[in-house]
Amino acid sequence: MVDRNLITKLGLSNEQIEQEVNELFTSEHTQLLEEELAKKVESLAPGTIVTGRIVTQLGNDVIVELGLKSEGMVEASEFDDPEEIVPGKEIEVLLEEMDAESGILLSKRKADRIRGWERVIENNAEGDVVKGIVSRRIKGGLLIDIGVPVFLPASQVDIRKPGDISRFIGQEIECKILKIDTDNHNIVVSRRKIIEEERYASKEKILAEIEVGQLRTGIVKNIADFGVFVDLGGLDGLLHISDLSWGRISHPSELVELDQEIECMVIGVDKDNEKISLGLKQKSESPWKSVEGRYPIGNKVTGKIVNIMNYGAFVRLEEGIEGLIHISEMSWTKRIGHPGDILTLGEDIEVQVLGDFQGNYIHLGERECSLQRRHQKLIEESPSFVVDEAMRAEMGTVAIEAARSVDYVSAGTVEFLVDKEKNFYFLEMNTRVQVEHPVTELVTGVDIVQEQLRVARGRKLRYGQDDVRLHGWAIECRINAEDPYNDFMPSTGTITTVILPTGPGVRVDTGVYSGYEVTPYYDSLISKLICYGETRGEAVLRMRRALEEYRIMGVKTNIPFHQHMMDSHRFMSGSFDTMFVEERFSMSDREGPDEVQAAILATLVAHRQGQQASQIVAPGERDTSNWKWLSRWERLSR
């Protein structure tokens, strides 16, 4: 701005003023001024980061002065903290667009991201360790904020499959930079690398110090049929099922669970192959050490039958001590073909109960659950063929009283063991909805889950005991990812094809689909197939058809086992108990047509195909009557 009054007081003409200015500012000064102005103008080109000063805030717009009497706008939402919007404060912004109508559009967030990227590149390289907060989950992994968003693939989250990676959101984690892509502004990091390095250092220390007889504390990381893998802090040790307990157990999950901390004794060390053997039962004295003093020869003892074999029966006298009754020692007077003729392990029968907050209780009949393996049920049906009306009423009364005695509310299941004389004994109560509840729903018409939700809201049961009537028969087969031809070995992999059976009386409860991955970290159950019929025979026939239609490809399943059972005379006649599958069943014993029958069937099929082929008329020799041709075509299409 020029002060004209000051010039007038000086009494100088315009020519004199220009002469004075020229004497003060040489050509050198003029050149410097022009260069600075050029730089300032160039800095206002779109795509550049400039420093501006906050002028004021108008609604959702923050006005920023950029110099050269230029102002731009930034959205207030781009400030992480509203208190940062202070007039006069200098900030860096990215000039996005210069428009005559909308003015200069700026972005603070993009400028911060670019500066953050530059700082990360300047201060870090591939292989460096960084810390950041997990911000969100995206396809294939997680985004971590280390100043800029970086990508953590799901495969790099942990050394084992981590399950639901969303649980890391909001946590600060440490990662190693695997790759920096400067062209695309991408950084890939790994948490797994750090864990592996820490475990390697810890493993070397453990191998140098570990000795047989030491007690070590670890975390259960995997449970298999044959044992448990325990993480000792850098090295996994195997706790075999035979070293878990002095007593008999069917599966390690009966004693331990995932992520449980346990103390074990080291019973074997192979440092060359980095293998550690652990024992749990070795922490206590063997019950066999003083067995001769507790059970002298000639004494009468009482025990529980725990296993029946062709050659005899095993009787448990106490935990860890079992005795064998040989088949030749079972009777002086009768010839016994199999120990099961006079001894039994019993039937596994469970009763469904419902209770509400008002003190009302009902039972929904029983379920037959004897066909099981390692205490895991495989086939369930309702009603049970061993339970009559009187026994059903008595068992139901006992189940209700058991629930009432502890003021139980919601759906629950009371399990009983039943012997050959139809005496029943309380086993346990499961305070949840069982996997096999659909068979009860089908024969009673009661939606158990719906009633459970109603009770949870404080509502009264809609049914009284007199309203419960059993109608028809329902059978459920648990479809597991297991190979019945290889001792039910779990099968893992990706399911490539799923074709579900349909039709009247057929129900499938499942959550798997084509592309679903079956992992070794969870239960092998992948679906439940339930069939209903007016009679048990009709339910079995529908189950046979449904199993034939069921197709799951990509992993092995136990569908062949269920087909075997549905065709078995023992199953049809009810000649089985809780140990039938483990002790008296083999896939190689599957009943089917012999060679003569197979030859007859093959001949009949060939004959039928020949009949159909003879009915086909060659294209050039078709009958003159279209009606005859249509009739034959319809016969072939049947």
Give a written overview of the molecule.
It is a single chain. The protein is an alpha+beta fold and 638 residues long. It has six domains: 19-121, Nucleic acid-binding proteins (OB fold (Dihydrolipoamide Acetyltransferase, E2P)), CATH 2.40.50; 124-195, Nucleic acid-binding proteins (OB fold (Dihydrolipoamide Acetyltransferase, E2P), Beta Barrel), CATH 2.40.50; 210-283, Nucleic acid-binding proteins (OB fold (Dihydrolipoamide Acetyltransferase, E2P)), CATH 2.40.50; 301-341, no CATH class; 347-586, ATP-grasp fold, B domain (D-amino Acid Aminotransferase, Chain A, domain 1), CATH 3.30.470.20; 600-638. Helix content is 27%, strand content 33%. The protein contains 15 helices and 32 strands. The strands form eight sheets. The chain has an eight-stranded antiparallel beta sheet with strand order 23-22-19-20-21-24-31-29. Strands 1-2-3-5-4 form a five-stranded mixed barrel. Strands 8-7-6-9-10 form a five-stranded antiparallel beta sheet. A hairpin with a 2-residue loop joins strand 20 and strand 21. Helix 10 packs antiparallel against helix 11. The longest helix is centred in the last third of the chain and has 20 residues, at 595-614. The chain is elongated, with a radius of gyration of 40 Å. The N and C termini lie far apart (102 Å). Mean pLDDT is 81; it is low at 613-624.
